[in-house]
Design a protein that fits this description.
By secondary structure, the protein is α/β, with parallel strands linked by helices. The protein is built from nine helices and 14 strands. It starts with 43 loop residues before the first helix and ends with a helix. The protein binds pyridoxal-5'-phosphate.
Length: 391
Amino acid sequence: MTIVAKPGLRPANPNFSSGPCAKRPGWSLAALADAPLGRSHRAKIGKTKLEQAIELTREILKVPAGYRIGIVPASDTGAVEMAMWSLLGERGIDMVAWESFGAGWITDVVKQLKLEDVRKFEAAYGELPDLSKVDFDRDVVFTWNGTTSGVRVANGDFIPADRKGLTICDATSAAFAQNLDFAKLDVVTFSWQKVLGGEGAHGMLILSPRAVERLETYKPAWPLPKIFRMTSGGKLIEGIFKGETINTPSMLCVEDYIDALNWAKGLGGLEALVGRADANFAAIDTFVQKSGWLANLAVVPETRSNTSVCLSIVDPEVAALDKDGQAAFAKAMVSALETEGVAFDIGAYRDAPPGLRIWAGATVETSDLMALMPWLDWAFANQKAALKAVA
Ligand SMILES: Cc1ncc(COP(=O)(O)O)c(C=O)c1O
């Protein structure tokens, strides 16, 4: 079997997981020393931290002044489900999905909420559905950046400004790396553990004035658990959007989120974060274009994610294997890279086509991705040699 020499350089940080994502450069536990641990989150000290997290979010993401920003339980899933359970059912819904998370929201709406006037717009991994067919006078649920296929919408131009329905956007792999068009979005959700490398557990829920109006004028036919309730007596509970969380948050996670936001601010804010993700994507893309054995799973270049970069192995001998064979090949590469300590968690998502998925969000250093690329060649060549040896 041919043994290919190991590259000389190793990534300083081998964490390329798509969530929880790499901590920011220079992060250590010492950054959390100011966390008000052992104190009530409702005491002034805790409440001030929660307000600070909300205001820094507004500043960095450039959230319009009239939009509410809340910290909610259960990470991005909690935020999306809270929005769907509270807002949907008032009118028909167009569900738009092109990978497993979007598909999960369809399951929620069809099988759990059991809503009937639902149209589905779905596409295979690597593609986007035809967005021109979506009716924005209905409510629309979609994912801005499909983490498991690496396909994103290029911008919000497909959404009309004068829509009658609400747009509910799961933006967890997009926020802080891509420009979200807030004027076109009524609900935006994300978690802390993605582009800013924060911790899991808490979600962010951003509501447009139209979403608030719906909350105050429409009552769903189904019961809402306390954890989802955003109104009281038909009025928005404004406190939720001022740091009075529905239940108890982790002040350690809050401190970590504030640390990440301050890091982002120090870099220059959103433009700098988008710039870092774009540069990271470019480092991977340059390698992929030259590789001869890898291709981006996202077919259309403008839809290629700059965070969750999903790659297929297109080498003819590997592509000729059945799906299990391709999955085993990719898995063996991923495992060899992990054993070498040069890349952790870069296998494709379990429901996605076999391949690699490399996180390129802002907390990842371009130099680490550059160092990783030759290792992909190394792992591929070795696995290819193993394949030949078996044949
Ligand atoms: C697009 C998308 N939606 C939802 C989720 C679920 O997020 P969480 O585990 O933070 O609830 C993820 C996680 O990877 C995701 O990528």
